[in-house]
Amino acid sequence: MAPEIIIIWLVIGAIAGWLAGQIVKGGGFGLVGDIVVGIIGAVIAGWLLPRIGLYIGGGFIAEIINAVIGAVILLVVVRLVKR
Fold this sequence. Notes:
Layout (H helix, E strand, L loop, with lengths): L2 H21 L6 H22 L8 H23 L1
Helix pairs in contact: 1-2, 1-3, 2-3
C-alpha cells in the first residue's frame, strides 16, 4: 500500500471523526480517537450504505460524507452501549 493512500485515509478519518464528534455531542476521543472513529465509520458506511441503496458518489468530499455517516452511526451505538 502506498504511503499516500495511508495519509489520505488518516486525513479522511480525522475530518470524519471530528465532524461526527461535533454532530453527536459528548466527550471527545482526541485526535487519534477521532481518526480511529472516522476510519471505522468509513468501513461501516462502505458496507452499510450500498446495502440500503444509498450511493453518494465518488471523490474526496463524498468519501468524507460517507465516513461521517458511518462515524455518527458508530458514535450513537457506542454512546447507547455506554449507558
